[in-house]
Amino acid sequence: MRCGAYPWAYMMWAFHTACGTDMDHSVDGWTSEVQIDASLGADIDDNVPLEESLARCKAQGYTRGNSHLDSSLDPTFVKHCNKIQYMELILHAQEGSNHNDPHTPSPTFPVRIWPNDAATVNDDASFQDFFQKHVLHAEPAEASDVLSLPPAFLATCFDPALGSSTLNIHSPPCQDLLPSFHVPTCVANDYMQRINTSHPITLPTLLRTESPVATHCRYGLNMALVSVEGAGGLSVSVSTRAPSADEYMLPLRQDPVDTTPASPPSSPSSAQSSLVLGYGRVLFIPNGHAATFQGAALRFCYTDASNFNRMKQHLRVEALLDPAVRARLVAFQDTTFDSSMIRRVSRVHTAWPSFRQWPKPQHLAKESRHDGSTSSLSRRERYKLWQDDRKWDTLIKGLTLPVTRPPLVLDAAQDIHRTAITLTWQDVFQARKGDITRYGYQVSWVPDKSSIQSMPATADIGIQRRNLSSAELVRSALPTTAFGDAFDGKAIQGTITGLRPNTSYTFSLQLYVGDDIGLHSERSASMRTASMGVPSVVRGQPIVLQNTLLEAPSCVSLSWLPPEDDGGCDIVGYVVSARYDPRPKTAADSSVDDAMTWHPFNTTSQFDVVQSVVVSTRELTLDPTNVTGAVCNLRMRQTYQFQVAAMNALGVGSFSMWTPPLLPSQVSTASTSKARQDVVRGVGAPHFHRVYDREHLDDLASAGGDDVVGPVMHLSDTQQLLQPYQLIAPSLSTAVLRYDANGKLVWTSWFAHVWPGHFSPKLYSVVAELVVANPILADKPLENNVRDRLVVVRRGKLPLFNKVYHAQAAGALGVIILDEICDDFDHHCSAGSNLAFGEGFGAQDDAAVWAAIRIPHVLLRRGDAADLVARLPVASQSLLTDESI
Predict the structure, then answer these.
(1) At what angle do helices 75-97 and 7-19 cross, to 10 degrees?
(2) For a surface tag, which of 479, 504, 806, 833 has the fewest beta carbons within 10 Å of its beta carbon?
(3) Helix 308-318 crosses helix 379-400 at what angle (to 10 degrees)?
(4) What is the domain-level CATH number for residue 748?
(5) For the segment 486-511, what is each residue's pLDDT rounded down to a tens digit?
(6) Could you tell me if residue 334 is inside a domain?
(7) Residue 762 exposed, middle or buried by CB count within 10 Å (0-12, 13-18, 19+)
(8) Are residues 15 and 39 in the same domain?
C-alpha cells in the first residue's frame, strides 16, 4: 500500500518532513518494528497502528505528562515516544473534526466578518464592547481603532525582501521608532508579554503576498491583522481551519451550552463574507480560523482571557516536540500568573514600551489613576465605575479559571442509578492553604434528542444546573489514571440527583471560585440512567410479633425490612403471601417442620385466607429500619408461614424468605376456643386487605381508601345472624332491640335472624359494607361494584342459585336475599326445606348445582329488614321497596 492511500501514513511522512530528523532506532527490542522513517515513500506495513507503538512506549514507563522529568528514562526514548504521542493526538483531532469519515480531510467553511459600526464607538468602553460582542463569541470582526505607523516604520523594522518578516526589535534604527509605535487595542492585554520566555510569534510579523494566501496563528492564539496596503485597501476573507498532519489544532467545538456570560452576538444581517480593510484598519480573527488575502499586512498573534484555556490545550500537545513551548506552558500554569485585563484601554496601554513591559507600573496597572479622568466625576459616577470594574474582573477571572476534561462514569454498575448518576472528573483546582473562599463545580446536563422525544409534554427538557460545593465532593486519595497519562492529578466525584429513569443525558462542568465561574468543559459522552422496574427483594426473613389487635383475633402482626431499591417508583404497598398446614397443630408438636404438608390458600373456599393479600402503605407502621403490618382472615387452630414482597406501580418484586411456622397459639392473644368462628373481612372492616391481582395494581394500591357508604354489617351463616359490626358484639342470648327517649331504635342493638342456604359454607362469618345489587333482582351480571362487600338482592321469581352465582362472580363476600313473602323459615318459604329440621333453604336442590357456590348466602324476611333498609342510601331504599319490581 502506498502512503497516499492511507491517511495516517501520509501524516507520518508530513510529520517527518516537518521535524527534519528521522526516528532514532537506538532503543533495542521495539523501535525496529515502528515503520516511521524515510522509507515511508515505499510500501509500509499498515498492520502496526500508532496505538500499538504508543502502548509499547507506555510499557517501558513512558507517560505523556511527566516523562521529561523522569531521569531514569533515556532522553532519546522519551523524544521518540513524544513524537508517537503527537501523531496519535493529530489523528484523534482529525477524527474528531470529521465524524462522517475520519479518513477524509475535514472541509473548511467561509465565515462572515462583522464590519465596524462607527456609530457605536464609545471611547474607553469601545474595547470592552468589542471584546464582549465579538471576541468572546469567536466572531471575525473589524475593530474600531486605526493603527498609525511611524514614517518609514515598515522599511526600517522589517525586511522588505522577505514574504514573512518579524519585527526586528534589536535594530538600533528600529528601536528609535518603537516608542511611537502602537499595537491594536484588542492586542493590548496580550498574555504572551507577561511570561519570561520569548518567541518570534509574540512579535508583529509583516506578510507580503503576490497571490491569495491563508495565514493563521499557531498554538491556539488569536490573530489581529492590520492592513498596510495602500490604494484600494486589503481584501480579506476568513474561513475555519481543519486539523492538518503537520500541526495540531483543537477542533472547533459545537456545544449547545452557552460557554460565556457575555452579551449575545450581534445581528447576522450586518455580516459579510469578505471585507476590504483600509490602511491601518484592524481585523480580529479568532483561533481556529484563517485569513486569506493578497497584499501586505501586519499580523499580531496574541492570547488573552478569551482563548486562554484553549491556548493551554494547544501548548500541552506542542510541548511534546518543543521544550520551549513546555516552558511557556509552565509559566502560564504558575499560580502567580496574573490573568487580569484592562477594561478601558487607552493609547497609554497600546504604546509599544508599555505593551512589552511586565509587570506594568502601578499607574498603568491601576486604571482609575492612569489619566486622572475620574477626578471630575461625581461620587455616584465613581461608584458606578467601580461596579463596572468589578463586573469586568469577575468575567475575566471566570474565563481564565482552569477547565476540566469532560466528566465520565468509572463503574456503570455502581455509579448509574435510576434517578442519579455519580460523575468523575479531573480535580483541576486546589485552594491555597488558609484560603476559605468557597469553591466547587457547577454541573449542567441536558437530555439527548432521542430521550426528549419519549418524554411527556410536562417534562423539563431544557438545560438543568446544580452547584456542587467542595464539601459535597469526594476526592480520590491517589492520583487517577482514568483520564489517561496526560493527567497525573487526583479525581473528584459528585452525584447528580433528580434525573428521569431510562433517559440519556450529557454533562458539562464549570469551576466556580467565590463569585467567579469558569468556562464549560466539553460535553461528556451520553449516559443513560437505569430503567424503572419492580422493587428489589425484601431482605431477610419477616418476624412475627406479639399480636395486640384485640379487635381482630384472627390477625397476626409481621415486621420486615424494606427493599434496598424501590424500582424507581414509590412503594404503594406490600404483598403478603401465606400458606398453611390444614392439619391442626399444637405448641407441643416438636417435629412441626418435618410434619408440615403445606397447601396454598383458596383450595376449598374462595374467601378463606387467600394466597396473597395487599397491605397498602397507609396501613403500615414505618420506621427508619423496619416495616410493620397486620395480616388478617387467618383460620384459627392452623399453622401458617408468611413471606413478603414490595409492590410499586410496575408490579411486585421478589418475595422474602418464609417465616418460621406460626403455631396456633401465636396467631392471636384472644381465645381460640372452638366456639369462636373465623372471620373474613371486606370493605369497611378493620384490617381489610385486597387479594393480590396483578392486572389491577392501581385498585390494590388504593384499597384502603374505598369510601364506605352503606352500613358495615356482620353476617354469620353459622349463628344465623345479621347485625351491625362493632368491636364488642352483644351476646345473642341476651340480645334485645333498644330504643332511645324519642322512640328511635338504637342502631347498635339491631339484629335479625336469617335463614342460611342449605349449601352455604358455614365456615366463617363476614364483616363488610352492605350494598344493594344493580340490577336489584340479580337476574343478570351485576353492574355496580360489590367486590369485597355484602350484597342485598330481592328474591323475585328467578332461581336463588342464579342470584348468588351472579353476586359471587362480581366478587361479593356474601349475599342477603330480601324475601317479601316469607313469614317463617319453613316449606312455605322454600319448598321442601324447614329451618326447624336443621335444613337451609334449597335443601331439595341438586347439590351438584350449588357446588360452584362458595360464599355465604341467607334469606332475610322483609319485615325484619325495615330498620336496615333505612340505613341505606335513598336510591337503594327505593329499589328495595318498589312494589312494581
Answers:
(1) 130
(2) 479
(3) 30
(4) 3.50.30.30
(5) 666 788 999 999 888 889 999 999 99
(6) yes
(7) middle
(8) yes
Residue-wise over 92-105: b if at least 16 C-beta within 10 A, else e? ebbbebbeeeeeee
Taking the C-alpha atoms of residue 545 and residue 197, their distance in angstroms, rounded to an integer, is 80
Biggest CA-to-CA distance, the chain:
140
Residue at which a domain ends, from 672, 687, 704: 704
Show the cell assigned to 634. Answer: 387467618
- Ordered DSSP codes for 799-842: -HHHHHHHHHHTT-SEEEEEESS-SSSSTTTSTT--GGGTPPBT
Does residue 127 belong to any structural domain of this protein?
A: yes
φ and ψ at residue 223, rounded to 5 degrees:
-130, 140
Which of 241-250, 451-460, 826-835, 868-877: highest mean pLDDT?
826-835
Q: Are 810 and 771 in contact (CB under 8 A)?
A: no
- Structural element, H or E, at residue 574: strand 573-581
Peptide bond into 173 cis (omega under 30): no
Q: How far is CA 624 from CA 417, 560, 561, 569, 628, in A?
A: 22, 12, 10, 19, 11
CA distance 482 to 692: 49
pTM of the shown model: 0.62
- Which among 369, 399, 423 is the end of a domain? 369
Give the domain extent around 775.
Answer: 707-881
Strand 678-681 to 764-772 pairing: parallel
Residue 372 has pLDDT above 60, yes or no: no
pLDDT at 688 over 90: no
Task: Please name the residues in contact with 352: beta carbons below 8 A apart, sequence gap of 6 or more.
Answer: 178, 179, 181, 182, 183
Bond from prior residue into 160 cis (ω within 30 degrees of 0): no
> Does one domain contain both 262 and 336?
yes
How many structural domains are present in the chain?
Answer: 5
Question: Which grid cell is 339?
Answer: 490573568
